[in-house]
């Protein structure tokens, strides 16, 4: 081979290396707005409020939303279904109706059959106490023509009370594991009192299999003590919530429950430092490696900001006692929002099939005022930033840090679409609160050698090594030709 050909070869390697590095690092940094924010609730009836929306995505990529409707002496659980582009498949439909305060704290999850499992709190099932109520919905029994569904046709189980009679039950959270078992945790007790965190497991048809089981005693602050749960590949349940039971202020507590028995595998473990500063509103997801990712808001920097951590609970001995945070923590507390003097609050989190994290929160910095706009950020499973913080709304509400009305929700499904729902206040002048939806798209990660790649340090170092080898080869060729 002549040195001229070798030089060409070195140049080709150099160009290819630069291309690989560039495409590998930047392919996941662009996010597409498929649907700009649009109102999905019905503004036709004046004098009513629609708020506290949640969303889940099924295995076909369709999104399911539910929220609270109140007005004219009634309270309703409203449900709608959209396709991956945000087109309506089922128009807003009342799945449950009662008195004005009869629907609160809606949560939903999807099973492998694309059925919905919904829990909410209602005051209609007991005379003096709120109850956790369960519904199972099969939206695919509808013709999906974009009109309202017949609730009698798509609601296949319930509504039925799953918390015990005579007990005040609030703030449920729900998750469905890969075995189609339905896991529910809920809070027993009133605000500013000591209470209990309970656990119940249902089968896929809503029959109680375990519980309710008392997990731990808790102290219930006036605000924001709502658990978040997720399941892993073993069917075990991971729980986070605000904890003020043995700390100087509210901190983030983590627990792990055996999905087969309902027993604690990891007892109450305080993940944040007991620093007399509020850590609140945690949310948890679990990735394909059974690591848990958690976001929350924290005032340790003087103003409320958004934080993230990653833990591997299986590094613990799973004896039911508290874990050592220093043992199970994989990524230490990491601030995601800017420490800019403006409040960042009400975070929400989801994970997609590539273990990429999408995170949203309300941030006051965009308007330099009390009103807030939604920020969006994406991380890879190693905590590296895929999409830097970006503003995605232009009509945000005045978000009270104590008010759950405006807590946003986010969900990703089997594809690359991300669905975000939130509540705004009095945009059209007709009423106070309305429901909005945004659809984003993250491009799939690059595939190298048949394997999906994430942008982590290992791959960056590998590509850097290839690039360095090409440069060295080029230098050697030049020197040998010169001397």
Topology, please?
Blueprint: H1 3-26, E1 32-39, E2 49-57, E3 63-71, E4 74-82, E5 88-99, E6 104-110, E7 116-122, E8 131-137, H2 151-154, E9 155-161, E10 169-176, E11 182-188, E12 193-202, E13 208-220, E14 228-231, E15 237-243, E16 251-257, E17 264-270, E18 279-286, E19 292-298, E20 305-311, H3 325-328, E21 329-335, E22 344-351, E23 357-363, E24 373-379, E25 385-391, E26 409-412, E27 417-425, E28 433-441, E29 447-448, E30 451-452, H4 457-482
Antiparallel strand pairs: 1-28, 2-3, 3-4, 4-5, 6-7, 7-8, 8-9, 10-11, 11-12, 12-13, 14-15, 15-16, 16-17, 18-19, 19-20, 20-21, 22-23, 23-24, 24-25, 26-27, 27-28, 29-30
Helix pairs in contact: 1-4
